[in-house]
Amino acid sequence: MTASIELRDARKTFNVYRRRAEARGLGRLRRDRSQVHAVDGVSFSVEPGEMVGYVGPNGAGKSTTIKMLTGILVPSSGYVRVLDLEPTRQRVDLARRIGVVFGQRTQLWWDLPLQDSFDLLRHIYRVPEDRFRKNLAEFGEVLELEQFIATPVRQLSLGQRMRGDLAAALLHDPEVLFLDEPTIGLDVVAKARIREFLADLNREHRTTVVLTTHDMDDIEQLCKRMMIIDHGHVIYDGDLETVRARFGDESVLIVDLVEAGPPIEVMGARVEKVEGPRQWLRFRRGEVTAAALIAAVAAKAEIRDLELSDPDIEDVVRRIYVQGMDR
Amino acid sequence: MQYRLSFALQVVGTFFLSFLDFVAILVIFHHLPHLAGWSIGEIAFLYGSAAVTFKLSDIFMTNMDRLPVLIRGGSFDQVLTRPLGTLGQVMTGDIDIRHVGSIGQGALVLSIGISRVQVDWSPQKILVFASMLVGAVLIFCSLYVATNAIAFWTMDAREVANSFTYGGNAMTQYPLHIYGVWMRRIFSYVIPLGFVNYFPSLYLLGREDPAGSPHILRFVSPAVAAGMCVIAGTIWRQAVRRYRSSGS
Predict the structure, then answer these.
(1) Is residue A56 located within the same domain as residue A142?
(2) Which terminus of chain B has a lower count of CB atoms within 10 Å, N or C?
(3) pLDDT at A265
(4) pLDDT digits (tens, 9 = 90+) for A183-193
(5) How distant is the alpha carbon of residue A21 from its chain centre?
(6) Residues A241 and A278 in one domain
(7) Is A95 close to B78, i.e. CB distance below 8 A?
(8) Is A320 a domain residue?
(9) Which of residues 87-106 of A touch B (CB under 8 A)?
(10) Residue A285 is assigned to a structural domain of this protein
C-alpha cells in the first residue's frame, strides 16, 4: 500500500518586496527584494487512514504546506505527491479525490441556501445521485444540518457554516481530507461537535485526515500523530504523549483567594507569581493531578475562583527550542 | 432579470451610448465622400463587424474584472480546489446581458454596411464572413485572457488589459491602412488585430490594400485566431502557477 501523502524536501519560497524607508526622492521607488522560506525542506509521509495533526505558531508554514498538497501553490522545489498525483500538474484529477476545508474561508456560495450549494457541488464533482443522497442524509444527520439547510450561507453562524463546509467537502467521498484550522473561532460546544464528527469519519470511512490547528485540544482528542512545524521546518513528528511528557506537561493553576496572603506551599507545585489575592502555581501533570492540587490549596486557604491554563502550542514550541529534541 | 424596467432602460441606454460612437464616423463622412478610399458603407461594414464581435467577447469576459479581487483576497484558492478548469470558473458567474443593447447597435451598423456595399455573396464569401466573425470573437477573448492574466504577477492589470481590449476594439473600427507603417506591422504580426476584420474584409469587399500586404493574409484569420487561443491559454496556465494565495 502506498502512502496517501508524500513530501520529500518540499520548499516554498516567496519573494517579498520592501520599500526603503530611509530613501529620499526617486530612491523611494526602489524596493529591496528578500526571500521568505515559508516551507524550508519538509519531508513526511502519511499512510491511508491516518489522522495527523499539523501544528505550529502563526506563520510557521502550516497553510503553505497544505496549499502545496492541495494544488493551490506550486512548490519551489522538492517532491510532493498526494494519492500518487502531482498536485499542481494533476490538479483536476486530484481535486475529485480530496476534500479541502479552510476554517477562515468558505467554499459555499455566500448568497445561496446550503442546499443549493450542495446541489451545485454535486454537479461540479459529478457525484452520482444515489451516492449524493446517501452522503447528505448521513452527514446531515450527524452534523444536524436540517435546521439551517434552507438558510442562505451568509446568515449562518460560524459554527453552522463550518458544519456546512465540512459536509460540502465530503459529498464526493474524498480519500483524503485537508482541514486548515477547522475549529478556529468556534465555541467549546461547536468545537466538540466538529471533533466528534471527524473522529467518526476517520473511523468509519477510513478517510485520511490532515488538519492544521492552534488548539492542542484538537490534537489531543483526534490525532495519534502530530507534526510540529516552525520556521518552515518540521521540528517534531511523533505522538502527542511524548511531547506532553517532555515539554508540555507543565500547567498553571491560577487561584483567587478570599484574602491576600503569603505564597501557598503545597507539594508538587511552586508559586510563580503573587498579585494581591491572586496566585499562579506551576505544576507538572505527571507528578500531581489538578484535582489533588486544588484540594491541597483549598485546605490551606479559602478559594474564591480558579482557572487552569494548559500549555499552548507556542509554549511547547518554545520549550522544544530551549531544551532540544534529543534529551 | 428581477427588475424589468431597469433592465429595459439599460439595454436602450447602452444601445444609444454606443451609437454615439458611430455618429462620430458619420460626422467625418458629412465632410468627406471617402475615408482613406473607403465608402461609408464599407466603413460601416468594418465598424459593425468589430463592434458585434467585440461586445460579444466583452460579455463572455465580464467576469475578468473580478480576477484581481480573487487574486488579492486569496479567493482564487477555491477555484483551484475544484475539479474544473480555472479559466472556465473565472469566466462563468455573472454574465452581463445588459450589453445586448450595444451588440444590437453593432448588428444594426453591420447590416447597414452589408446593404450598402456591393458584395456578390458566393458560398466562399459567406464562409469567409462567418469565420471572420468567429475568429474575431476568439481573438478578442484571447486578448482579454492574456492581458488580464498579468494580474497574477502584478495583482491588478485591468488598466493594461483595457487598453488592449477596448483600445483594440477602437483600432479595428478603421481600415488598417490609415495607420503608419510600424502600427500596421504591429497589428498584423504582433497583436494581430488586423485579422479581426480588416484582412478578411479586403477579400469580401474586393478591395486592394494600399499598403500592399500579402494576399494570403486575407484567408488566415481562423488560423490566427486558433494560434491566439493557444498563446492565451499558455500564458494563463503559466500565470496560474505564479499564484501566491494569501495568508490565512
Answers:
(1) yes
(2) N
(3) 85
(4) 888 888 888 88
(5) 36
(6) no
(7) no
(8) no
(9) 88, 91-93, 95-96, 100, 102, 104-105
(10) yes
- Asked whether the beta carbons of A236 and A325 are under 8 A apart, the reply is yes
Tell me the H-state helices in chain B.
4-31, 40-60, 67-73, 76-81, 86-91, 100-116, 123-148, 151-154, 158-171, 181-185, 198-205, 221-241
Instruction: For residues A201 and A234, state if they share a domain.
Output: yes
Residue written as grid cell 494548559: A310
Out of A22-36, B24-38, B133-147, the most confident range is B133-147
Q: Whose grid coordinates read 459536509? A: A167
Burial class (CB in 10 A: 0-12, 13-18, 19+), B161: buried
Question: Domain check: are A52 and A199 in the same one?
Answer: yes
Residue B1 scores a pLDDT above 60: no
Residues A62 and A195 in one domain: yes
pLDDT, tens digit (0-9, with 9 covering 90-100), for B162-190: 899 999 998 999 899 999 899 999 999 89
| Spatial separation of the C-alpha atoms in residues A143 and B146, rounded to whole Å | 44
Taking the C-alpha atoms of residue A169 and residue A124, their distance in angstroms, rounded to an integer, is 12
At which residue does the C-alpha cell 502530530 appear?
A226
How many domains is chain A partitioned into structurally? Answer: 2
Q: Name B21's bridge partners.
A: none
Contacts of B80 in chain A (CB under 8 A): 70-72, 91
* B135 has a pLDDT exceeding 90: yes
| pLDDT single digits (tens) A159-195 | 899 999 999 999 999 999 999 988 888 888 888 889 9
CA angle A176, A181, A184 (to 5 degrees): 145
* Alpha carbons B74 and B246: distance in angstroms, whole number: 5
Q: Which residues of chain B does A124 touch, with a Cβ-Cβ cutoff of 8 Å?
A: 82-84
Task: For residues A216 and A78, state if they share a domain.
Answer: yes
In sequence order, what are the residues at sequence separation of 6 or more whose Cβ sits closer than 8 angstroms to the Cβ of residue A298?
none
Rounded to 10 degrees, the C-alpha dihedral B4/B5/B7/B13 comes to: 160
Angle at CA A195, nearest 5°, toward A194 and A198? 85
Grid coordinates of B103: 451588440
Q: What is the CATH number of the domain that holds A140?
A: 3.40.50.300
Residues A191 and A222 in one domain: yes
Contact status of A142 with chain B (Cβ, < 8 Å) = no
- Output the CA–CA distances (angstroms, integers) from residue A76 to A79, A120, A194, B77, in the order listed: 10, 34, 34, 18
Task: Give the structural domain span for A283.
Answer: 250-310
Interface test with B, best of A14, A66, A67 (most B CBs within 10 A): A67
Residue A247 · residue A239 · CB < 8 Å = no
The pLDDT tens digits for A269-288 are: 888 888 889 999 888 877 88
